[in-house]
Amino acid sequence: MTIAQSRQSHEPGTNGPGAVTAPDEFAELLPQTRRALLRRLAVGQSEGRAPSMVGAVVREGRAVWTGARGAVDGEAPHGAVQYRIGSLTKTFVAVLVLRLRDEGLLRLEDPLGRHLDGTPVPDATIAQLLAHSSGLTAEARGPWWERTDGGLRPAPADLFGERPQRLAAGRRHHYSNPGYALLGMLVERLRGDTPWYEVLRREVLEPLGMSRTTLRPKPPFAGGWAVHPWADALLPEPAEDTGLMGPAGQLWSTLADLCRWAAFLLRGDGRVLCAASLAEMRMPAVPPEESAWDAAYGLGVQLVRRDGRLLAGHLGSMPGYLAALWTDVDEDVAGVVLTNCTSGPVASAIAADLTAIVTEHEPRIPEPWHPLPGPLDRELLALTGPWYWGANPHVLRLRDERGLELAPLSGVGRSSQFRPEDDGTWTGLDGYYAGETLRVMRDEDGSVSHLDLGTFVFTRGPYEPSDPVPGGVDPEGWQV
User: Fold this and answer.
1) Which of the following CATH numbers is that of domain 83-361: 2.40.50.140, 3.40.710.10, 3.20.20.80, 3.40.50.1980?
2) Residues of the chain where predicted confidence (pLDDT) is lower than 50
3) Where is this region: Disordered (predicted)?
4) Torsions phi, psi for 367 (to 5 deg)
5) What's the pTM value of the predicted model, to 2 decimals?
6) Which of 59, 331, 371, 411 lies most in the core, judged by the most C-beta atoms within 10 Å?
7) What percent helix, strand, coil does the chain show, rounded to 5?
């Protein structure tokens, strides 16, 4: 493909093919916000010397702004123009693996060898592969895999050299592209030897309406370029089919489709993956090496701290292309940037800045409060209110779908949310009590005695002599 040397500007809001359309109530951000967004994109494209660049902001499940700079085939790129997204592909593969886990076909703690024969790391767990802590080598064997035909590595054994594992599994984060090739093979094996992309198309892309996310480019697409470091000159980059390495970075997508993907990563979709599993993906899976960490990795997603905000998403790079997608779950906002050059623009910073501009210019308006959907469970309602761990007061609150939340009244201490289970217990979802079981203990007459939370006893009063406090309570009670 050729590229015109003209520098154009366009914001495909509601017009043009592939436009990412915002509903009426979100059709317009404030003029100063829109200008700030366009300026940030324009500065990134100009200073990074990118042949073209597109960007978008997603908020509350909708694209609220899109913009474009530069040109593709002499025209401003629109929302249906494909770009290669590189390692953003890994977020899609991770979602496929979490789907298998949620269906009970595997556990994240399973060693890979339990499900896949002939791997160089049979004892590494699936979670370690997702989090890049399996110790596998960073790159595939042979010539630069991103610029050569995947036919050079036709079999799994062709991906690895003599030392496939460079570090002990589980000890530290070490980014591994071949590790995601193995995860793609795992998906194929557990889906009846169906190619991983076909599984992705059927289970994820079609339900989310992402028809322009493909394994190979489909017109219109932006050709990939290298920009000369010391002159304003261009060199076309190859766009090879990477074969078995595809799960590490093969996909092509569009601004419109990635807005849908960002909305999904923020909120979940019951047809694909629930919000709880997405939250699990966003938790740091390996302890960061720096005590005051500003970057970490979850299960298939990168994590960064920026200006007091936690962003989750992924970056992508392939010869001729850079991509970035960051989500801020607390603000329910995401930024997406795609460009067609090998290096130059800092796509990560641009996408993060797009989210920050909207958050700072137009702080989120919270959802309206509403009562719990009926009918109200009177027994659960009776459990709410103050509880005491020893003399430390806590409060138990009833949440939607029979969920519970326990928090210290002082605001300092251990708090967690809990999911109800079929056996009448609750399981901790976050904080210190993540994975722990909360039980309501009853006396012989059926009345509530206390709460048992991972052996911690919570009573209705602080150290009452009659309460079943481990170790007992002085029978004289409180004294002055």
Assistant:
1) 3.40.710.10
2) 1-27
3) 1-22
4) -65, 145
5) 0.86
6) 59
7) 30, 25, 50
